[in-house]
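Example 3.2
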Amino acid sequence: MNILLLGSDSRAGTHGRYGRGVTGARSDTAMVLHVDKSHKMASVVSIPRDTMVDRPQCAKPSGGTAPGEHQAMFNAAYQVGGPACTVKTVEKMSGVRMDHYLEVDFKGFEKFVDELGGVDVTTHRAIKDTSSHLSLTAGRHTLKGEQALALVRTRHGVGDGSDLGRIQLQQTFIKALIHRAESIGVVSNPARAYALADTATKTVSADSNLASADKLLGLAKDLKDISPDHMNMITLPVRYDTHDTGRVLPLTKASHQVWQALRHDHPIPKSATDNSVAARTDSPVTTDT
């Protein structure tokens, strides 16, 4: 089973503080979640938003069709045709069919974290980023919704300020979130599980096959045996574009290895990421287990 997880950087409503003067939404985060046939192992491939890809022809939400584009920024697909166009773009670049998609925006992310009672992480150094309104001292923290959002959005507070450093934070936070859900027995407590699933239906957009609390609860039960220790999280192997260092290009051979592993339900070989610039980025945050 393959699920495209999307985080959109909608700046509407109460979240204008995260980008004043900017309207609309973009795909700020994109991860392909592959669940193996045993439902006990998973692979997650993060796609950097600045990756240059060939975008297919897409239907526009306002009507009409947007022609395909050669070497377009990955996150532009969302601007052109929303999640449906992003799904088509991922399928084109990977050759992997997406069975579902789930999308959460800023407000939904904050609410979901708050419903869990916060998420525990440890920072190994102070992190301060005025752009994302993040200020954390070194040490252990229980992050509520707004702080958690600031953490997964920060770019300038970690690494070289690129999207690659932020992806490392996002992957670490997801593992911490799963640990939190396990520790409070979300799936084993039917009432709490349904309440969270009901919250998700109000804060998460999904394809029609997941668009109800019962269906989301069913998905959670399908994934309950996958612990963070059995979840391999990588970033798509990329290199910087020599013509524009603000953009990245997939490493052809290595990316093929990654997508081929998912297509054949195999673990992603470690060698696939060895030469990626993303492999040089370390997260200053770890999970509390």
